[in-house]
Write a structure and sequence with these properties.
The chain contains five helices and two strands. Strand 1, helix 3 (56-68) and strand 2 form a beta-alpha-beta unit. It has 131 residues and is mainly alpha-helical. The longest helix is centred in the last third of the chain and has 26 residues, at 101-126. Helix 1 (7-23) runs antiparallel to helix 2 and helix 2 (29-39) runs parallel beside helix 3. InterPro entries: DUF1442. Pfam families: DUF1442.
């Protein structure tokens, strides 16, 4: 697989991220990360996020996935973090195609919750503790 840099896609993602972060007074590395991910046309962008975390980078990654034609997935450690992340992304404008972030990502949240339940069940069967 050959990587090809797309300056047009990178510029569009950069500018959209600047606009989004400007509204929320958060910027910095989000624009750079967004431009890099979109410019290389990343097909899968995975991040981790927990309660109280900054949302600007997440918005930038969401914008990059939209411009690069990829998928943006966030891994949250618990249900409270997932709910806070979804609310923060919706408030920050991290939605795509006019869809509600919560509706579009409900299946992902359920999938993450299901995976967590499977891990808990395995630990219970094996007699281990789950944090």
């Amino acid at each position: 697989m050959k990587l090809v840099w797309s300056p047009e896609t990178a510029s569009k993602a950069y500018l959209d991220t600047v606009k989004s972060c400007e509204l929320h007074k958060e910027s910095g590395v989000a624009e750079l990360i967004s431009a890099m991910a979109a410019g290389w046309k990343a097909k899968l962008i995975v991040e981790t996020w927990s309660q109280g975390g900054a949302i600007a980078t997440s918005v930038g990654l969401s914008i990059a996935s939209r411009h690069g034609g990829g998928r943006h997935i966030c891994i949250a450690p618990d249900e409270e973090s997932r709910v806070e992340y979804a609310a923060a992304m919706e408030k920050a404008g991290g939605t795509t195609s006019g869809e509600s972030f919560g509706r579009r990502n409900l299946a992902r949240g359920v999938l993450c919750s299901y995976a967590r339940m499977q891990i808990q069940e395995r630990h219970r069967i094996l007699g281990g503790e789950v944090s």
